[in-house]
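Supplementary Methods S3. Input chains for the assembly prediction are listed below.
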Amino acid sequence: MGDLLAGFAVALTPANLLWGLAGTTLGTAVGVLPGIGPALTVALLLPVTYNLDPTAALIMFAGIYYGAMYGGSTTSILLNTPGESSTIVTAIDGHQMARNGRAGAALATAAIGSFVAGTLATLALSLTAPLMVRLALAFGSAEYFALMVLAFVMVTTMLGESRLKGWLSLLLGLTLGFVGIDGLSGHARFTFGIPYLLDGIDPVIVAIGLFAIGETLWVASRGPAIDELLPVRGSLMMTAEEWARSWRPWLRGTAIGFPLGALPAGGAELPTLMSYAIEKRLSRRPEEFGHGAIEAVAGPEAANNASAAGTLVPLLTLGLPTSATAAVLLAAFQQFGLQPGPLLFEHESALVWGVIASLYIGNAMLLVLNLPLVGLWVKLLSIPRPWLYGGILVVASLGAFSVHRSAGDLLLMAAIGIVGFLLRALDAPVAPVMIGLILGPAAEQHVRRALSISQGDWTVFVTHPLSAALLAISVSIALWGVFARRLAPPG
Amino acid sequence: MILSDYNRPVRLLAAAMILLTPAFVTAQPLVITAPAAPGGGWDQTARAMQRVLAEIEPGVSVQVDNVPGAAGTIGLARFIQSERGNPGALMVTGLVMVSGVVLNGSPVSLAGTTPIARLTAEYEVIVVPRSSRFRSLGELIDAFKQDPGSVSWGGGSAGGTDDLLVRLMAEQIGLPASSVNYIAFAGGGAALAAVLGGQLSAAVSGYAEFAGQIAAGQLRVLAISSASRVSGIDAPTLREAGIALDLSNWRAIVAPPGLSDAEEEALTARITKLATSPKWRSTLEQNGWADDFLTGPPLRQFLLAEQARIEDVLRRLSATNSRAPTTLSVTLTPSSLPNAVVMIFLGALTLTAVTTTRRSLAFDRQGLRMAIAIVTALLVLPIAFVTAGFVASCTMLFAIASTTLRAQSLTRRAIAIDLFVGAAFSIALFLLFTRGLGVMLPGFF
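Predicted structure tokens for the full assembly:
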């Protein structure tokens, strides 16, 4: 508790409050705009924050992450085009509510639900992080490797329609991750004698290529489309009945979102889908689902915000990113020479707790930014699509170039963009590429380190109880994935 | 608006004055290449020099240019090629570049530069956790001699100062460098968690990396790699433990090849003035860097000796590593896992290709043409970026993308509007990034 209070002292300085406000505002904007997400935004901002105080920069990045979770719902409800993958579920009933003239209530339940879930989940983060840190100190290379195997299995089993395509994305990320000088031996791998490749493939360039370029090409390839933007109709005040129908889904969404976000399962898609399914099952009016049920907006919106806080638990305590945005956030920590993990809480206590405290403040800011000011955000959606995507391409090029001030990075960005487009065309999930790229080399180093320490004895992975347990869970999830598919009726 | 219009001539005048100032003072403007990303030791050294020079040579422009990559060898190659004969160019270098040249098979080495001065040193310490059974370096070395594999050493990346120290130490006590069970981490800080957790026998890194844990009593220092004891650090030197070895993570400053003797002397004089200034002394203290100033012929001799001993140990190491493993146990080489992953990836790709061809991907014909137009613009962009500058190339990109996406109502007027919006957006971004955020972008128009 003392740490958290000290964190508030850091987060409440005027400068850090301003960075938090900048982050939440920017986050809401990118959440509202289709085509740009928090992963891409943080990636774009990395090169320009080199000289900033790390605490200020990370407070801003955390604000962007939370803000995008709020802003995404606006687009889903009014435009039926989810601004973020985490608000796909919100679009189903949220847009129907808007069509029925209850856009105001849908926006309100989304924003208030996000606030409730965000605050409760941040509280859960403050309570569980110190416990995780104590557990994490017992983690050696064998345990880290087992944990990463679990992340790989979960990401590929849980995301997307087909496991083959999940693995395809993950393996692509792993392959890209191996490019460059091997940290353990100093050998160059997959560099083909090109000096440019010696330092490996920068995750920031990959994030920009996959998310900005890939998405733009995908939108272009589907041909000219006309979206119908619905006006905000109906009062932003929810009726007593709407409150009564909303509060339980908010709490259930939080309870689903936080633990699932903390598990290495690739972000907010899964918790939002689960929340939707559970609300539909529990509802006394399941027939309303799909036609504008307020529970179907309240639950998933709470779940996606809670999962954002959940994601921060393994990121901060273990250095393990479980979503694409977390992967980019990890790169942000590393840019400042900080390695998330148990020692971060010891060495940089003020920074970590300052960031966590800023999340409480950010949530309050976001409620204010999103409810009364929703009309302002809707204006963003009136930017003509050709200009929006033209602007995204320009900003992406600027961001990719400024990472190393190298024109070669622009070529890499374009190439990764084409790959991102092909993955979308194949209906393969994109997030596993980022997870594989970041965790792949780390997992490999941990295997080899564990084996060096044990002098080549492979049994370390099963004789260490924690690592054995994690590997057993991974195997059962993989098997469950295979058999659940077999047992399921076709179609 | 009115204010900025009023300010404009003033600002232009100020800019003109800054541009003209060097013409009136004798000192040459300098560009110091830091062959690493911002934040690392080389970058910190370059920026510290920049700050001190700004004080002792007011009015002289000193810029820092980061050229990161491959242990500095990318910066080294660029420095030697494009700065030849330029008396206003300097580059920061250090021990890690000497080994980087060998490990990366770099075609150029420090021998291709003009050494100016060695500036700083950071010493390495060997630490064990408080609970360790090793009380002194002698005990650790005894265990190491008895069964080299049983002692695991952790530290920064392979070929770095930490790795080199342990390998040189092994050779010094009569063991082959390849017998060291060295476990590389991203840096000394990352190795810290492993040594505190008792997974490593000992950790090796710069003193600063461990200072906090040493002060807190969590780590015990067994030895320091300096030639003589360092005040404030309670640790014996390697020599005191009977190992005739000292190694420091030194940093030096070099000029490009092809300078005249007079130019070399002028640069040496300026750097000497910098290194003896009180401001530089306080900078050293703040960063925990030891003063290790050396110039002229002794510096050349030092660099040749460092290069010789590091090349030797790394060559012997790679010679033993490339030999076929003698045991039958399954060991992982640096390429075994990557090759396995690529094989499985290609398998998954083939499987996906086979299962996808039957299903039509159902692309919109016009849409595909639009995507191809954007891809073409993106592929031209890297060239345009360097030759035509940021604003022109990004205006082009914006206009091509938005006119392509517009598709149906493609009039001359619409294209003109797209061009205009693109130019306005690019110029705004350019000004924001170059003026507001200090990011250097190529060219204006």
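Strands of chain A lie at 180-181, 188-189. DSSP finds 21 helices and two strands in chain A.
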